[in-house]
Design a protein that fits this description.
binds magnesium ion, binds guanosine-5'-triphosphate, about 20% strand
Length: about 240
């Protein structure tokens, strides 16, 4: 059987303390993957560190966006590049801060299928978060409940961006014009794939809190996510399948 080509998209904003070590950790687990970092001109020099690495390793690629436009927009940019250049059969998205553990990659890759998306889930049996404050735990549960309730999605964990897609799933996604650019791209993607009858396989995942660098989640981001949730619920409730 032909070997699957794997590409991993990592959105970054101020992840200089994590990104190089993470790419090495990924390589230790999935040796021949292509790693695509999508950076929004991080002031801390993340882009420079990745471009140094890319100069030595042609399977590391850097996409630099002109301005900070949200995690989701960065991931979609990476996806577009992958489809355009046809460099992968299995495509992963993951965060740069080690909350998505590289050792979980092989199982995610194994479980992805042409019509099956594999998702790392903190809220199925065996999954959990580590070192989160009670406020963060309540917030995450409420966000998940709200998305599930409003969008009628069948997922237990709607807000974790550690996922593996087939090339077919990506091609389906990219036919659509996305309304969201924040973390809510995760929900908009799930909604599109659900409507196209893709199956979701939620795998238990351990999500440690970031040790280095600082969070990109703030109140402004929360407000943006809520506005985007309202927009997609209205768009999809009206029966319109955006952009298609
Ligand atoms: N390119 C890009 N990446 C982003 C943006 N916002 C967040 N990211 C990246 O998306 C991933 C998730 O962001 P985090 O800051 O870890 O968000 P979080 O997990 O809610 O917050 P933490 O508690 O700090 O982990 C990280 O790899 C970030 O660097 C953005 O606007 N642009
Ligand atoms: Mg994080």
């Amino acid at each position: 059987m032909k070997k699957q080509r794997v590409a991993i998209v990592i959105p970054t904003y101020n992840e200089n303390e994590n990104i190089v070590v993470l790419i090495k950790a990924i390589r230790a687990v999935v040796a021949d993957s292509t790693v695509i970092v999508v950076d929004d001109q991080s002031p801390d020099g993340t882009g420079k560190s990745v471009s140094k690495l890319a100069a030595k390793d042609q399977r590391v690629k850097l996409i630099t966006n002109k301005k900070k436009n949200g995690r989701g927009a960065a991931v979609l940019h990476g996806f577009q590049q992958i489809v355009k250049e046809n460099v992968a059969d299995v495509i992963i998205e993951m965060d740069a801060d080690f909350s998505h553990r590289p050792e979980e990659l092989p199982l995610l890759i194994e479980k992805v299928g042409q019509n099956q998306v594999a998702l790392a889930s903190r809220y199925v049996k065996g999954g959990r978060t580590e070192n989160w404050s009670i406020t963060r735990r309540i917030f995450s549960r409420c966000a998940n409940w709200l998305i599930r309730f409003v969008l009628r999605l069948p997922l237990k964990d709607n807000t974790n961006g550690y996922r593996a897609y087939s090339k077919q799933a990506l091609q389906t996604l990219l036919k659509h014009h996305f309304l969201c650019s924040s973390y809510l791209v995760l929900s908009e993607s799930a909604l599109i794939l659900h409507r196209h009858h893709f199956i979701f396989c939620e795998l238990p995942s351990v999500f440690p809190n970031r040790k280095l660098g600082s969070s990109n989640t703030n109140w402004q981001e929360v407000v943006k996510n809520l506005a985007e949730l309202k927009a997609i619920s209205q768009m999809y409730a009206s029966g319109c399948s955006c952009g298609n």
